[in-house]
Amino acid sequence: MDTINALGRRKSAIARIYISDGSGKITINKRDLETYFPQKTLQYVVMQPLNLLEVAGQYDIKVNLDGGGLNGQAEALRLAISRAMVKIDAENKPKLKKAGFMTRDPREVERKKPGQPKARKRFQFSKR
Fold first, then answer.
1. In 11-77, at which residue ranges do the beta strands (DSSP E only) sit?
2. Alpha-carbon distance 120 to 110, whole Å?
3. Is 26 a domain residue?
4. Can you tell me the distance from the alpha carbon of 27 to that of 85, in angstroms, rounded to the nearest whole number?
5. For the chain: N or C, fewer Cβ within 10 A?
6. What is the pTM assigned to this prediction?
7. 27 — phi, psi (to 5°)?
8. Cα separation of 38 and 1, whole Å?
9. pLDDT (tens digit per residue) in 115-127
10. Number of domains in the chain
11. Rounded Cα gap, residues 77 and 38, in angstroms
12. Smallest Cα–Cα separation from 50: which of 23, 16, 68?
């Protein structure tokens, strides 16, 4: 199998991944998964599509992560891995879609408006 690439986004995080046959090594920005995501919950989020399809030790994944926080990056990576799994075998799509891994979460941070402290919060109104 040649190298397959995919892209995943969440909030302002972008994950570009390159998948090839291997032993299950995940390298994120030249660091391994456990070093980059020390929290077990975030490691679990990243591994969800691989565990669902039972291919956790079959592919080497090289990841380029940029922007956002750790949670957004983990979810962007999950989407990218899911998209790559569909590129490898189209029969994986219904399973991943049912689990909710194929949907790009469109929620973004709302911009701050002028004359207000935050996006929706207003300064205290004074009648007199």
1. 13-21, 26-28, 31-32, 59-66
2. 9
3. yes
4. 17
5. C
6. 0.91
7. -115, 120
8. 31
9. 999 999 999 999 9
10. 1
11. 15
12. 23
